[in-house]
## 1
Amino acid sequence: MELATQLVTYGILMGCVFAFVALGLSLIFGVMDIVNFAHGEFLMVGMYVAFLISSYLPLDPLVSLPFAAALGFILGIFSYRLLITHILRGPMVAQLFGTFGLMLFLRYLVMFIFGPDVRTLSHGVLVGKQISVGWVSLDASKVMAAGLCLLFFAFVFWMINRTKLGRALRATSLDAEAARYMGIDTEKMNALAWGIGGATVGIAGGLLAHFYYITPTVGMLFVLIAFATVALGGFGSVPGAFLAGIIIGLIQVLGGHYLSELKFTFIYIAYFLTVVLRPRGLFGW
Amino acid sequence: MGQLLRDIFSFGDRPVIERVILVVFAAIVLAFPWLVESAYARAVMIKFLLFALFALGWNLIGGYGGQVDLGQAKNVGFGAYATALMIVHLKTPFWLTVPVGMFFATLESFAVAYPMFRLRRHYFAIATLCVALVWKELFIFWDWTGGARGVELPIKPTPNFTYMEFGAIGYHYFIFGLFMAQFLFMNWFTKSKLGYQLQAVRDNEDAAASLGINVTGTKVIAYCITAALGAMGGSFMSVYYLYIDPDLVMPLDLSILIAMTVMVGGAGSIWGPMIGAAALIPLDMYLGAWLAGGGYYGIDFIIYGFIIMIIAAYEPRGIWGLIQRMSKKG
């Protein structure tokens, strides 16, 4: 019972992180119908920011979050301006491969600079600490990561739904041409979607670095998890992404406990079954 | 029969020039082991031919079919494992294992193809990627495949045509034979009925359907043929490396590299796969290996990524598209 409680709790905690990772992907897809394969690489860059700041400066890795967000934002905007605007004109194959190229470029650039070694955070307020809630004992870093992800998720959700900027973003996503007639600078909205996508996933990376190993190749796994999450939740649906994140988190943690070699297999199968059996996902239209 | 031969050896746009290029290419490759002594250069040549072979096969679904399949490595794995396991456990001659590998690759592709082709665009690409990853993880998980340890093939002391084991020169002609067979097959395929149907489906599905083409059926058959061609290359990998494991024959990077080779060279053209392999493989084998020796990893993939971005942004038809554009201007 204790074990089951612990596993389910971890599943939900990881689910919050997955949901937050998937949020940016879903946003970009919703606004301009393009899938960003480099999304996981943005996450990896966020992890490296946390690692570098905590290893080379006498600072806690938590301090790195604003920097990870800023770098992710800049990376998103640059990717959009320098690459995405050009490949949007091409056929769909070019769009897929363009972000694929960006993925390879970022991943191996980081590998080139920092080497292929696996790294972990060695110190930090939360690293390696345990907290007890009731009769379960949990990693403090995971609880913190899940909590902050939930907070930022709620913030982005609020921003999209309640602010003027968010409404412009949603208008662009529903009908870009009509939005242009209404005086919305859709180019700017596209760039903004990429910026927010990069910033959110950068923060997620900074939080993940607290308890996940840091390597240049970690991105692929998370981008696949994010694809599965977004597909399950329904492309373009933010609440869907949240619920799907929790479900994927539970699948990964429970599957990983009982069949550890196959823990990611279940996620791939979940993606496949979702898109085949219910292509619009749980909440999509 | 005459028509068949004409289809195999004729080329579309510039029949004479292209035929001359093919003959010159074949002559260079045939003479290569006698001109170049370096064992490394010979290994680079074999890897080039192997990837050109993989790219030719992928070009069928990716280039002529326009379906971005990011899971070709699973078919390579089926071929490689069929050959390795049958040779090790049953002592089956190599040539009998090849059709078995192709059969299993086709069977699996047929089984997943129908649900898969309900999907389009990104959804399809990611689904192929997921299916290939599931197979790789299963091959690591299972015991009868040797798990993560892989399978080691028995080494024969003398050149052996039953198990296709010999020195570097033997492998060179072996892979070149496979490559030429597949090249001519693809050249015929583009002019076959199915080839035209597939290209029609790629260009406009609704228009193709209105002409009475079975859109899904065409895609499924193309997907299965691609799988069989991939498995053939996998069988070669088994006897060439004499040791296989899921990380060598089924990784995601292999799927990506195969697709990238075609994209860089020029998808949907008969020369694209060769051009792409010629552009990417020596880069990886020389520059990548040289810099990795100095402790710098990944420079080859940085350049790959950059090339891919440039091509996607400015010339989605790849190097072949560039050549065509320039020759039209000139």
Note: The first helix of chain B runs from residue 2 to 9.
## 2
Amino acid sequence: MPWILVLPALVGVAFLVLPFAGLLIRAPWSTMGARVTEPDVLAALWLSLSTATTATLVSLAFGVPLAWLLARAEFPGRRLVRAVVTVPLVIPPVVGGVALLLVLGRNGLLGQYLDAWFGITIPFTPVAVVLAQVFVAMPFLVISVEGALRGADRRYEEAAATLGASRVTVFTRVTLPQVLPGIGAGAVLCWARALGEFGATITFAGNFPGTTQTMPLAVYMAMQRDPEAAIVLSLVLLLVSLAVLVTLRERWVNA
Amino acid sequence: MRDSSPRRSPSGVTRVLCAVAAAALTATACGTDGGAEPADERGELHVFAAASLTDVFDDIAADFEEDHPGVDVVFNFAGSSELAAQINAGAPADVFAAANTSTMDQVVGGEGLDADWAAENGEDGAVFATNTLRIAVPPDNPAGIEDFDDLTGDDVSVALCAEEVPCGAATVTAMEASGVAITPVTYEEDVRAVLTKVELGEVDAGLVYATDVIAAGDRVTGIEFPEADEAVNDYPIGVLANTSDAGLAAEWVELVRSETGAQVLAAAGFGTT
């Protein structure tokens, strides 16, 4: 065992795990059951799981083609596009939420026409929650998939093409299966980030129980009044997401 | 969003620069007060104040420092409950000005107020200002809001503070006292977030404080409503037990509660007692 690697790795694990242990130690176990089954908590949990999953599906639908474009297509300004795609990773989510309001809000660049022509307003709806999550989480998927595409052996694609496969066939029958683990890993990252999303959600979608109050928002609100309730909610979110991630990892990433 | 770092007024910066310059050059006449000495601990007054008092206290500090040459008012502006926690944890503070009585009570029951000052001015601090709820609407008032009752309309979208934060608690008090039940589209995490939603025109109205309406200038219009009188927020101030200069701290509190202080507070939208 090379200690020069093992020691820092142990420090890293301890640093990541200790806060979790802190939550476990401080958790009010005696009242745990009653708190977890409160209707508001279940509503927030369901909203979180359904919006994060929807956001991941949306990110897959748009993010995988985008990653392919960045990895495989030659076009002017590609580096600029790549930089722009990663912007949501660097800007504070609250700023992202304000930006979404300025574009899709009732008086936003596009939102005003949605309202005037179709009578659709997005803020304060579950749709806004999903959009906020896609905005902050899709870059994780795009970066993972792009990395997988760059690492993939292109000779298989070239062989398929010389055998007469069309570009779409090459993509669906050769490229996609090759990078599937990368897509799986990216989707898991994306889902996890969407599940924990707070800043952009509360800014763009607001905070209303059952409609837009996801678990992270419920945790924040509980923190203001009852820190113990906040710990319980955090643990629920942590355990559910861990369970999902562990199950998926077995099935997907090692596929 | 909140600035919780200590702020220095310009004269403080000058003093520090003097001290630094003096240290670097070992002997330099810097100003008239023999700046070779480092900044005097006792020349600083540490005021912990609710974030909503930022502009007002900066103004008052300019007056105070003019009347007290060599004294430097150092602020720590943040949410009242955060400040109360810092004070009870032993932060070096001379004065605490809170945005509600409950956070002052936390300090009174914790680190405590200066006994002499409290005996003279009130065991729970002295209320020096009040803040009242206002309806804030976008300048074009798209939903034609005129009074509190209008906020209950089915097609009116309203942003309220979450019940967990002070402005939300005041909102609930006003609703309960008047029997007006508003169903908002969102419960925002603080009063500034409500204001932002109104400024951007994302909601037809929001409930904020009078001081927020004034701070927002012409980006929102404020509407007074009588039901707000049921939920007035008191701002208490007090000299703290672990002050290093009770006399100086008491003078600051006096200035805040004086006619001069009241004028500055009133200009910012606070009610004064």
Note: Chain B touches chain A at residues 1, 157, 159, 162-165, 184-189, 193, 196-197, 200-202 (CB under 8 Å).
